[in-house]
Amino acid sequence: MATQTSSIAQNLGRVRERIASACARAGRRPDEITIIAVSKTFPPDAIRAAHDAGLRHFGENRVQEFEAKREQVKDFVDSIWHFIGHLQSNKVHRAVHLFDRIDSVDSIHLAEKLDSAALAADKRMPFLIEVRLVRESTKTGVTVEELPALVSAVKRLPCLELRGLMTIPPYFDDPEAARPHFRKLRELRDRVRQRLSASLPVLSMGMSHDFEVAIEEGATEIRIGTALFGERIKH
């Protein structure tokens, strides 16, 4: 465990150096950037090591997987647990009880389900809208054209709190190729914010291989898995 903690702490140090360099290029401050440690498929010991290293935001993408881990990390009362996967309607109630934020809402139907579950749990649920910037059959998310209507609709749901937008661009070997996608989400957020008087302070975009470009284009949250934990455990 001590070796794992040291390794993750060293990895985090390198990630923070990369963040600082990207912020310097963009004229931003590193404290504007939140790291979400993508702990999906990693065991509780790895999450504990990341927590010991100072991380407080964690991302999981399967309700059932996190249910199995939750008992072993329940003492992390200062941590924020993000659901970052595609949320199925039949798992909404469980997700509301397990997670502090849902980062992948992509329809009014799902938002309404979340609102009902949050009401039943006497909880106000922050969330992000996932935007699909390219028409790939493997990608989830609301389309650019559908986004304004979804933002308008979710603003009327009393138990939900829309915090911002999230996107996952196609994977490119050259991170620079992702720049137009990150820029497009920022510009889209700015247009929607002005048009609908929605705050939308969060832009969640960028992962281990391309987060510097995302930061340069306005990301406020980055989702980091491999650069912290190493190669992902295959299930």
Structural class: alpha/beta
* Helical content (DSSP H or I, runs of 4+): 40-55%
Number of strands: 9
Q: Which sequence of SSEs, written as H and E, runs from N to C?
A: HEHEHEHEHEEHEHEHEH
Instruction: Output the radius of gyration.
Output: 17 Å
Quaternary state, please? single chain
Output the CATH class name.
Alpha Beta
Report the β-strand fraction as a percent range: 15-25%
Mean pLDDT: 93
Q: Kindly report how far apart the N and C termini lie.
A: 22 Å
Number of helices: 9
- Tally the structural domains: 1
Q: Main sheet? A: 9 strands, parallel
Can you tell me the CATH topology? TIM Barrel
Poorly predicted tracts of residues? none
CATH architectural arrangement: Alpha-Beta Barrel
Task: Lay out the secondary structure.
Layout: H1 2-26, E1 34-38, H2 44-52, E2 57-60, H3 63-70, E3 80-83, H4 92-98, E4 101-105, H5 108-120, E5 125-132, E6 142-143, H6 147-154, E7 160-166, H7 179-196, E8 202-204, H8 211-216, E9 221-224, H9 226-229
Parallel strand pairs: 1-2, 1-9, 2-3, 3-4, 4-5, 5-6, 5-7, 7-8
Helix pairs in contact: 1-2, 4-5
